[in-house]
Records
---
Amino acid sequence: VPQLEKRINPLAKLGYKKCIVPKSAEKILSEIHSEGMEISGCKNLKEMIHTVFRRG
């Protein structure tokens, strides 16, 4: 996803608490982003669905 950091920053300002990104971008964004947003990286669609709909 091009310019992913620029796309996530407005979400944090709007009050979003979680963001799901490609696994390859998770480490980079976690280091850069520190406004209280949880960054979850997923390697495929199945993992993304599990992350979004997990219970608990």
---
Amino acid sequence: MISLFQVIRYMEELFANLEKLHTTQLGAMRIKSNLSLDTGQAVDWCKSKISAPNAIVTRSGKNWYIDADHCIITVNAHSYTIITAHRKK
């Protein structure tokens, strides 16, 4: 089980590098499709969810998983690439 200290550390690290978040064109299409988004700015939408006070950040291997507002956002921890996002089941 992950400790509260680890969650806080991951959140601090991700928030400190929020401006580095990006995705590929295919990634943006996948995010919009998975979440049925109307916005053309998938990265900005993800940033707002990641910055939400109720967001919980965990890390497994090379990826961060952000659980916020009934969505899971997957971010590569080294490149800050948003890989995908989907609704929580």
